Amino acid sequence: MSEENPENTPAPAPAPAPDADAGATAQPAEPPITINGQYIKDLSFEAPTAPGIFGLMQEQEPKINVNIDVNAQPLQDGVFEVVLHVKADCKVGETLAFIVELAYGGLFTLKVPPEHIQPILLVECPRLLFPYVRYIISDATRDGGFPPLLLGTVDFVAMYQNQLQQQQAAQTAGEGEPPAPEETN
Asked: For labelling alongside 52, which of 20, 86, 93, 164 has CA 20 to 30 A away?
């Protein structure tokens, strides 16, 4: 069914057809990051004081501690494994309510300049994996009988910058020793 033109204004001209030769020579650019796969490497949930802890949680506010770490390693030319390690524990006073640990990995193919590989591996790749990590942790704590632990956003850029600062500090500390005197002939 065609649209009516009540004002009798001319319809816009159709866009010109693309040049057939231009498409034959132009190749689509490869994406800089390709996710080859994602997987749970390790998942552990423990509630060592259940069921007694549930009553204690009604009396006192639980304290939750979450630690996140990122590791990356090359597997073959341009293919890397990135693993997010998450460890969360919940305590009521000094009593451990639960502990959940997850190592969630992803295989990535990178087609970027060498100077961009490390920031992409430690910032962009974890950003792509994190929503799945959040979901798994939430489900594990809920399935364990506790309210779901909803992880907040993680600033992977700040984590990366802190890692760089620690590396620079370590290098500077190593350079603090006076250099050995050079021998002259």
From this structure: 86
What CATH number has the domain bearing residue 45? 3.10.420.10
**HSE (side-chain half, CA atoms, 13 Å) at 100:** 27
Give the Cβ contact number of residue 49 at 10 Å.
15
Question: Quick check: is 37 in a domain?
Answer: yes
pLDDT at 27: 63
Task: Walk along the chain (185 residues) in steps of 10 and give the mean pLDDT of each run.
Answer: 47 50 61 96 97 94 96 96 98 96 98 95 97 98 96 96 91 65 43
CA distances to 47, 83, 140, 173 from 134, in Å: 19, 14, 10, 37
38 occurs within a structural domain = yes
Task: Give residue 117's pLDDT.
Answer: 95
CA distance 101 to 137: 8
